[in-house]
Amino acid sequence: MKENNIRGGDAPIKVELEANKNYSWCSCGHGDQPFCNGTHRKEKATTPLTFQVEEAKEAWLCTCKLTKNPPYCDGSHNA
Ligand code: FES
User: What is the model's pLDDT at position 29?
Assistant: First the structure.
């Protein structure tokens, strides 16, 4: 866990992602999960990860911030 980051949750959140849309996944754990709401600035924590998907899909996004495959849950929340 990077300095000033916290676990934002203990389980992933299921989301419906739209194709070719910019998403900002919260990497610091402080704001509403799983997307950035700007709280990292106040907390001096890490900035969000911006990502897109090529096709619309359902995805499980990490909230614990321990994933090795951000923004997606890789099961690390159980470690
Ligand atoms: S919620 Fe972070 S790895 Fe599953």
Answer: 98
- Which domain covers residue 54, as residue numbers? 13-69
Domain count, the chain: 1
Q: How far is the CA of 63 from the centre of ligand 1 (A)?
A: 6
Q: Is 74 in the pocket of ligand 1 (CB under 6 A)?
A: yes
Distance (Å) from CA 21 to ligand 1 centroid: 22
Is the backbone peptide bond immediately before 71 cis, with ω within 30 degrees of 0?
A: yes
Identify the segments of the chain with pLDDT beneath 70. Answer: none
What is the rounded distance in angstroms from the CA atom of residue 47 to the CA atom of residue 59? 21
